[in-house]
Records
---
Amino acid sequence: MTPSNNRLRQRTAHCLAIWFGAGLLRPAPGTWGSLSALPPAALIAWLLGWPGLLAGTLIILAVGLWASALYMRDTGRHDPKEVVIDEVAGQWLALLPVATYWELYPAAFLFFRFFDIAKPWPASWADRDLPGSLGVMTDDIFAGGYSLLACLLLVLIIGY
């Protein structure tokens, strides 16, 4: 790989890891990362429905593992607060049951932020014990999974 290709790969990974700058916003970069995940999720859901959003979530998960690993390697820091691609993956997972019900996006956002901050087991285990980018991404996937269940329950209660 040429130096210019390596530099492009590094810049791309960094840009994705901080989700195009959302992770640099203060305070609460995780909240900004989750908020910035909503518009592209809505666009994907509008164009492709929940299956498209599921595919996007899986892609973001894979890309997030790569991008956050490269970012952490380059900065020498473990789980830097500005890395928010993990919030994007978790937020998109949370949105699956409400993918085309945009009026329920605020509830999915609040559920995800609650579970991401509270980190009920096994999210706390993943955050604490899994190494590198696997730990960075996995705790948010667990939080997204809990939020998905909460959104599914909400949809069932409302009767959508």
Note: Helices lie at 3-17, 29-75, 85-95, 105-118, 123-129, 132-158.
---
Amino acid sequence: MASDTTSAPQTANPTPCAPIDPASPILVFDSGVGGLTVLEEVRKALPEAPIIYAADTAGLPYGSKTEAQVAARVAGLLGRMTERFRPRLVCIACNTASTIALGMVREVLEVPIVGTVPAIKPAAAMTRTGVIGLLGTEATIRQAYVDRLEQEFAAGKRLLRHGAPGLVEAAEAKLRGERVDPAAIAHAADALRSQPGGDRIDTVVLACTHFPLVEEELAQAFGPGVRFVHGAQGIARQIARLTQGQEYARQAPDRALFTGAGDVPDAYRTKLAQYGLLEVGKF
């Protein structure tokens, strides 16, 4: 696995001049639990930083929504969350939300923002066969932003894309402690392998923060000789750079917030605690 250094250019709005409250959290936002793969790396880089993890489970999945729906929903939610929680920085730990709504969010929020982009640049540097697979949501793989990344960093190589919404549910199920549907894993691998040149794929971009949660299952499906790349480490480095020199004071346990209706399953709570999210609530 490699990190996505192309996350670094997804820079934030200018850091506010006002002093930062040491208790001010970093807000990590995703459509579901996929952003936990980013949170894990943020913890390593900034272990003292207060964290709020926000999962828009009421809006899941983003990949099947229109661009207008995603942009309006993400901007609206983050507007209310930043007003309520006053974070020092917002991390949009979701490729779909970032490729669609990042510009809009930066226009309306006066807080540093770090987004997530598909790790095409490091994948292009890693591949030996010149054939790269990209697994994302249906919305992500069709974005012009991905086209631009391909043109800039993977010119002369072949990038094969597949929208794999089934992997989102597979990742969510795994985090709940449930069985991962092997058909969803096999379908994602077969969909890339069956494309022209797909038999030569040696590098796969996991262009959804959910997908690293099932990287082990995907590795078995693709077989030996295939490497996977995603952006969590690069995002964490960018957050650390933008908050360098700031003080941290955790005055309450870190927490996870969900927008969905109903109770949060106990299996979720157990896993969230393993990520340091000791309180769980609704937004």
Note: Strands lie at 26-30, 51-55, 89-92, 113-114, 131-136, 158-163, 203-207, 227-229, 255-258, 279-282.
---
Amino acid sequence: MTREYPAHPLVGIGAVILRPGAVLLVRRGKPPNAGQWSIPGGAQELGETAEAAARRELTEETGLVVDTLTLVANVDSIHRDPDGRIRFHYTILDFAGLWQGGEPVAGDDASDAAFFAFDALAGLGLWREAHRAIAAARQLLGV
């Protein structure tokens, strides 16, 4: 199945990883949203549980691993081309977890990875749904 101009929505997975005062973000290296900061994540693979996909994507994009993950938000991401055709369509499940240690190193389709202070998020141009998922994770995890 092609990710671009799909026949049906694809399942995307995000990992909202928090440490005291900060959240982990990656800079996207590929469309959609190339060059933009976002929550680490990607597409779920056939035969893979959603949580396993979150762990895999987190490790592939940042080199980090976490212990407990909890489903915290769902998001619909639909991108249309100039003709109005659906170019990308993801139903995204965001999981939240606490940082266990180590520093992020960008990998896979992420061109950068870093922790950002919560008060610095407004200047990054994050999608409103990323802000919503981060707020839900902060509330759930008490960070």
Note: Helices lie at 50-62, 128-141.
---
Amino acid sequence: MIRRQIGRTGRDVNAIGLGCMGMSIAYGEPMDQAEAVKLLHEALDLGVDHFDTAELYGFGANETLLGEAFHDRRDRAFIATKFGPVGDLATRTVRGVDGSEANMRRAVEQSLRCLKTDHIDLYYLHRKDPNLPIEETVGAMAKLVQEGKVKALGLSEVGADTLRRAQAVHPIAAVQSEYSIFSRDVEKEVLPLCQETGVTLVAYSPLGRGMLTGAFTRDHRPEASDYRAAVSPRFQGDAYEANLALVEEIGKIAAARGAGASQVALAWALASNPNVVTIPGTTRLANLTSNLAAADIALTAEETASLNALAAKVAGDRYDERGMTLVNA
């Protein structure tokens, strides 16, 4: 097990956490609640203590799931959640981002109720509100720290300039961004700034939304109900075929080690920088156990160089056109 601190909070977590979104939305039908709670308990018992959720993940459904799982063992779970995107519960559609204090107050109280807790360990702005200065939103979030409702603040999918401006208002413990062998934009400015200022980079989708696991093939694609088929260009058309060829390269390195492609992908992310922690998602105990074993893999310089070369060959953006307007903001 590798343990790393979250920012300068003094709180350390298993560097391989659990992204919980897929238990409730996005990748097909939601998990049965009892099965999901069982998996969360098993994760805790295996040493996972960093659990990531958000209001957006089922408009409270995913937070409610974590509340059911951890309300009676809250001291063992480091829970991160997020606010910002707003939408319609009935249609499960997002209409924009609201980083105002009024929306934050509504969202945090709802999150506390759903999570059945009196505090949130790490509270993120899920996406920057394009209509508000980051200073205004972070200033409001800082009040939650003063009130004891939130222990630390984070930002998701922001650029280096936004992070600097936010840090001038209140310490930022973590920046959450997509980061994997296939997605390395943060290495240009955000990750160096995080390392310089003691901010943890929380890597979501370190397995490329499942693509880097090797589970997908030319004949086995995401189903129509899976959001990857609709909003992720990397899973569409010719780009999908091209990217599978790159995954085969990861698979060759993994096979030579007697490991899985997902383990190699996680090992790469953990070795990339000591400021990085990961939150791969899964709905299966076998995958969770496999992911945790990645902490024991030390890649050689030659293997790392081969994996690093793949990013420049990836086809397609990680989100559709609308989604890309909200990242690196």
Note: DSSP finds twelve helices and twelve strands in the chain.
